[in-house]
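Weekly sync notes, structure subgroup
Attendees: PM, AL, DS (notes)

Item 1: joint prediction request from the bench team. They want all four components modeled as one assembly rather than separately. Inputs as received:
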Amino acid sequence: MKKLQGCLAPIPTPFDERGELYFDGLKRNLEAWAKSSLDGIVVMGSNGEFVMLTQDEKLRLLEFVRENYPKEKLLIAGTSCESYRETLFLNKKAYEFGYDAVLVLPPSYYKGSMTEDVLEYYYRGLADESPIPILIYNMPANSGINLSSKLVVKLSSHPNIVGIKDSSGRIVQISEIIAGAKGEFAVFAGSASFLLPTLAMGGNGGIMALANVIPDVCSNIIKSFNTGDLLKARELQLLILRINAFVTSLYGVPGLKAALDIVGLYGGPPRLPLLPLGEEKVREIKEELNGVLERAS
Amino acid sequence: MKKLQGCLAPIPTPFDERGELYFDGLKRNLEAWAKSSLDGIVVMGSNGEFVMLTQDEKLRLLEFVRENYPKEKLLIAGTSCESYRETLFLNKKAYEFGYDAVLVLPPSYYKGSMTEDVLEYYYRGLADESPIPILIYNMPANSGINLSSKLVVKLSSHPNIVGIKDSSGRIVQISEIIAGAKGEFAVFAGSASFLLPTLAMGGNGGIMALANVIPDVCSNIIKSFNTGDLLKARELQLLILRINAFVTSLYGVPGLKAALDIVGLYGGPPRLPLLPLGEEKVREIKEELNGVLERAS
Amino acid sequence: MKKLQGCLAPIPTPFDERGELYFDGLKRNLEAWAKSSLDGIVVMGSNGEFVMLTQDEKLRLLEFVRENYPKEKLLIAGTSCESYRETLFLNKKAYEFGYDAVLVLPPSYYKGSMTEDVLEYYYRGLADESPIPILIYNMPANSGINLSSKLVVKLSSHPNIVGIKDSSGRIVQISEIIAGAKGEFAVFAGSASFLLPTLAMGGNGGIMALANVIPDVCSNIIKSFNTGDLLKARELQLLILRINAFVTSLYGVPGLKAALDIVGLYGGPPRLPLLPLGEEKVREIKEELNGVLERAS
Amino acid sequence: MKKLQGCLAPIPTPFDERGELYFDGLKRNLEAWAKSSLDGIVVMGSNGEFVMLTQDEKLRLLEFVRENYPKEKLLIAGTSCESYRETLFLNKKAYEFGYDAVLVLPPSYYKGSMTEDVLEYYYRGLADESPIPILIYNMPANSGINLSSKLVVKLSSHPNIVGIKDSSGRIVQISEIIAGAKGEFAVFAGSASFLLPTLAMGGNGGIMALANVIPDVCSNIIKSFNTGDLLKARELQLLILRINAFVTSLYGVPGLKAALDIVGLYGGPPRLPLLPLGEEKVREIKEELNGVLERAS
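Output from the run, pasted for the record:
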């Protein structure tokens, strides 16, 4: 199996003006990302608007991306559904298509029923039955459920649960997972905003919206850190905080898509209920992005 | 259009032991509910495990229920999806099948993007394009999003937005909606635990998990209230608080399904990740239920 | 002991322009409230800015109010401190001064340590050692701690814990307390915004900021309800929702003090960090207040 | 002014068995801390049970500590009160006694009124009027209020607001403060659990409960980091996560006091409502502490 580490981008799903999957735009983006310093990508994560896609669209998307992205890079499929059986179905499909791993959110609609026991049962069951390695996906800001370090450490003992993307930003929790996890368990920062702190604690890299937009800057934080240049890593980390907020917590997927359009990739419109950004916000992103690119070089 | 009021049950979706839709059990339940004092039912609400169903299952379920439930009673379809286009699609199907109204949650995965403006745009768009009246569904415990009374009052001015099921239990919010809503806007308590307070403030009834199990007791709260017997209504309201918690906040859908089995209807297993209740909890429900039935008669 | 019921006002503490206790203004207010239809008052509740007062000021205030308010009405002292020993000290003082009961918040700074066991121990200890009856004060919006109905029902069995002011607005919780509490335990709505729902469930009245401003309207909700005129009670309840928000959740103590100035009582400035309302908000309150008074008569 | 940096301990306030201030125990502790590698201490922070102390006790405590702790080390006074005037009074006293700085929480009882404008006004006013430099204290787990990085960055421009102890553990927020703060603004981790991530981002040190118990281990994280031995710093950081939880989030002040007793300093009982730890938990702490000390040496 490929080593789970480095700089990964959870890619957005391109739609055309009528709201249909737009494979031409996607192909163009995949080529650019393949040439960048990215170590891999994740399809159908939160930035991929996976909750907006029909089952059929999901399968077409998984297939297309696998065929148009280099085999030697990491390719991960987001397969989260509320129902166990649907998630398992997608895990099997991702395996058949040739993905390296799947990224799985906890079910979250029935919050009151999602005790740690239920969640452990869910992940262990999937890990037992899936033919493909599983990355846990902790994203409390969207799902409303935080996976405790205690639960994650327990799950890390399963041979088919191979890592976590933690988007909580709770650095103590991330540290506790690193302190407690067994073996080769990979810990990824789920946002570029806390990449360096995660690396400092021994994390394996980041799966970060911003890496779609400025992969080389994000990648350079990791490279600087790995070569012992902590000051450079810190300087870049502090530099990207604001642009990162624009494409995540502040303006979400519409912000990310606007930023892609700005750097010459295909962003395009999100699906309703998400609305495209207004001009004012696009200008804000453009300005910040230009500033970052200037100072980063 | 039928008057939106009274005692409604958001029915669970029956599965057999292999986890497949079980129409025989459903048919039996529908017959019992048709004979009860229920004024109507809601298909594919939270208790209907709608997030566990495939598109195909949803359509089969909608069709089957319509064919097996009396035309003169209220029949409402839960059609909530994260994506506007999928919700709209189901709204049209519900209309074609002959439903009286649809019940629609706010999209909730991208919580940070779901501003009041975005939510207003979403509901107005659906209301404009849907051939069937819309009931707003506020269920913050599951969705993680609360629809403010200010937003609901605004939406109540749309001729095709005809009411709300508010499961928040926030009685001040419910009161503010009643104080501010235009015209015939129907306000339903979303749980039996605050039915009487909602009626006292001028609400139109309840859409309540517990009404699946003991429809006549729930219905009797409304009847007592409407005939001026507040003491009887209060006595029943206080009586059902604990059993209501068992089939909602405490044990969720598995609790509701266990309770149905106890009263001789078809409950059956939930779908994973939801797990059937253990024996101890089933016994607890049974005991409480027997106590309620004894004292209610 | 006097019966714990009816319409009570948690009075604000008047300060002069230099921020000192202003007893002349207080005396004037006490005379007006004594003549109104209020059944009693609470000194040093949340509206009394008790957290801003020194120990010495608290004692002077308790004494002054006792001497200037009719003996036959209910007079309750807020005595909440973070420390057990200080709360107990004030309870003893309130007894010596001749108060009817004390109102006690849970300690809340060390939230992580305030388990239900610790809170039960705290209230039972105080109830054992205090020479004066204790009313529990649940105010999660300020304290950050909600007292569960389970805990309150347990505490209701203590002979010296005689009731609760619940400001949570959680009507199910309030109903559960009524359903479970022993004997004569008095349940008060902690805000005018859910007075009628509380009465409908069997509550004993309200301790409500708004009762400082328009005691007769608040009182009339209770009177209408008690005499079986539910429609009148509901009409008034719906009427006051907005003005109530102005003097509580929206503009807080500064809003309440501004409203008192508007109706000709002494409001005056709050203490820093609280800031007096700006003109625009004062105008808003004035307009709403006039509308309410007009329609209520 | 002394440089604000390094390893500081927010000391607990010792009480004897009757609950009175116990200066003999305190003196013994101060001597031990003076000989340790601590760079300074904070009196009357959250661990100092400041909310349990009377005004008179606070003044005696401030005076005693100043007289019994070396002048060349950092000595900071917690002076937080809900009321501006009382906080200002203590700030002046701390200055008179000879403290280096004061640590000030936002007022937090009237949460609904504590807008960013009100909080900015509060801190700027104090900074203008206080004769002593102010450190902002962000402790949302206790106060229920989080000070945003935007607000803190604004405040950092005031010449008399010299730094922050951030106990939120939100590393992105801490990073944003570092990225945006003006001049010499000092940023301290408010708990040992995220000391290294804070240092990695450019923070100045930590003010940490655990530093009372094992000052040399905490200090060694900083020293290792500063001398470029990131691996050693990380190893120690991962090592202390669990013992840190015992003396903070899990068992709070009672846990900290028990740990002090274990290492031969004076811990003693907390004040009610806080309760001393049971034997089982004391044993747990002892075991973990021994493990840490063994592996750290």
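Discussion: The longest strand of chain D covers residues 161-166.
Action: AL to compare against the crosslinking data before next sync.
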